[in-house]
Each structure stands twice: as C-alpha cells, then as structure tokens.
Amino acid sequence: MKRGTPNHPKLLDLCERLKIRRYEAAGILELLWAWASRYAIQGDIGRWENRVIAKGIDWDGDPDDLINALIESRWVDTATDPYRLVIHDIADHADNTWRQNLANAGLTWWDGSDPRRQTHSNNTPKKLQRTSKKPPKKLQVTSTKSPQPEPEPEPEPEPSIVEDCPVSVAGETPDPPLPTTIPPESKPPETACEKTVAITASSYLENARKPRRKPDVPQSDVQRIRENLVAFVGGKQGELVRKCGPPDDEICRRCLSVCEPASVELVEQVLVELFRQGKRPGSSWGWFPVAIGNYLSPKAMVHV
Questions:
Q1: How far is CA 125 from the centre of its chain?
Q2: CA-to-CA distance for 3 and 63, rounded, in angstroms?
Q3: Is 28 within 8 Å of 59 (Cβ atoms)?
Q4: Gap between the Cα atoms of 100 and 94, Å rounded
Q5: Among candidates 234, 211, 229, 238, which has minimal Cα distance to 285?
Q6: pTM for the full model?
Q7: How many degrees, rounded to 5, is the angle at CA 239 between CA 234 and CA 242?
Q8: CA within 20 to 30 Å of 278's CA: 45, 240, 269, 304, which one?
C-alpha cells in the first residue's frame, strides 16, 4: 500500500459507505490487491463472481454491498464484457513484484498495456554544461635555500657472541631448553548455558524429523467438494463413479490445498470454468487437483 493511501479521501469515502473504521478499510484494500495479484493477475477481478471476491478478502457481509461501495468510492471500475469489474488504474499503481510476475507470464494488463514501467526520457532534464574555464595552475614556488645533505646511515650493530652461544657463566646453571611441542590446552568445563543450548538444539532436531500434521479441514467442506466432483462427472451414474467409486477425503483436501486461501467457493467457481471449457477427467480422481492448480496458475489468468 502506498504511503498516502490511509489518509486518501477515497478511503474515507469507503469507510463512510461501509460504516467501518479506517484501519478496516485499509485492510480490505490490501487484501483485495493481494488476492487479485494471484487470481486476477491482469487486474480483471470481474472474471469471478461477487461472492468469490468477498470470500477472497474475508468479507462476511453482503458481497454486493462491498462491490458497490468499492465502485462508488472509485477503487474498482466497471468495464464491458467479458471483464465486468477491474481494479482502478492498476497499470499505474501496481507494485514491481506484480508487474514482474505479469511480464514473466507473458501477459499484459486487462486493457492491453505493457506491465513494465514506461520511462519518459523527454522529461529528463539535461545535464548542466560547465561554462566556467578551468582554474589556473598553481605557481610553483622555488626555494632559495640550498639543499641540505642527506644524513649518513648508521651502521648496524654486530651480533653478540654471548647471546648466540649457550655458554654458562661460571657458577651459574644454564636455563633448560624450551620444549619443542606446546601441550594442548585443557578444555574448560561446560557451562550451564552451553548445556541448555545443546539440549535445545537436540530437541529441535527431533521435532524437525517428526512429520508435520496437515491442517484440519472441516468434514462439511470435504463433503461439499465431493458432491461437486461427483456432479462434474455426471452424478452417481457417471462412468468415473461407477468405475472408481466417489472421491475419497484425500482428493477433496488436495483440491482445497491448491487454492490460496483455501475456499470451497473458489473450487466451485473453478469447476464451473473447467466444465464450460470442455475439460473432462480421465480415469482417475487425481485429475481434479492438478486441473484446478493449473487453472489458478498465473499463466492461466487469461479470458477464454
């Protein structure tokens, strides 16, 4: 979100229409843009129904009231079919990550404009040309004093014979020779802090090896997706149901896991689009999670 958005008059207008606080309106806009950057990457959120858009941004009120308030406060614009609804001036206000993802997918914005930022070279001021002359060179001042002679180097002292030869003085015992090897230093005792760190690291590794538990999905959502998949293939008399039986819970959970956020309404909308495009499964229920994931990928965000 840009710096001036929380105080923008359009945001205050949205607050007044929905009877919400300013931080709630800022959260709605931030979630709308984040959801659109994944599921309507070209800015064409009207490809989804109003209830799916509302579910994607966690709006628990009337979906039509939300969309109408966004339109009247000019955060969302209406467009002709097949776009229906688009984000207002998305080509000018999208962040760099959104633009890069759109360019990597080989797509443009919904109105055909280039996702890369346009640089206006005509408005760039020219560099000022230096008009002043070069500064004059400094005058070299010559000294009238005669040069001083360099000092002669002092002779190096000759090595002492007494220091080099291990000769003992009369009546004194020569020092013992230094050991050729240095004994290894004794390891200090382990402190309580080090013991705590070692125990914490070992427990972390043990927990990391344990398989993570998948998030629980309500059984009602699993049953609802199962009914949609069975209806997609022709009901209980469909060939896939008679051959393999109804889809199990794991298949239904995988259909939810490819959606972000996980939403039964989003899965239902994708199934409608796949059926309208003439897509049909093969001989396995595993086709559905793959087909839904491929449809929600950025390269699939093109109107058919």
A1: 36
A2: 28
A3: yes
A4: 10
A5: 229
A6: 0.48
A7: 105
A8: 45
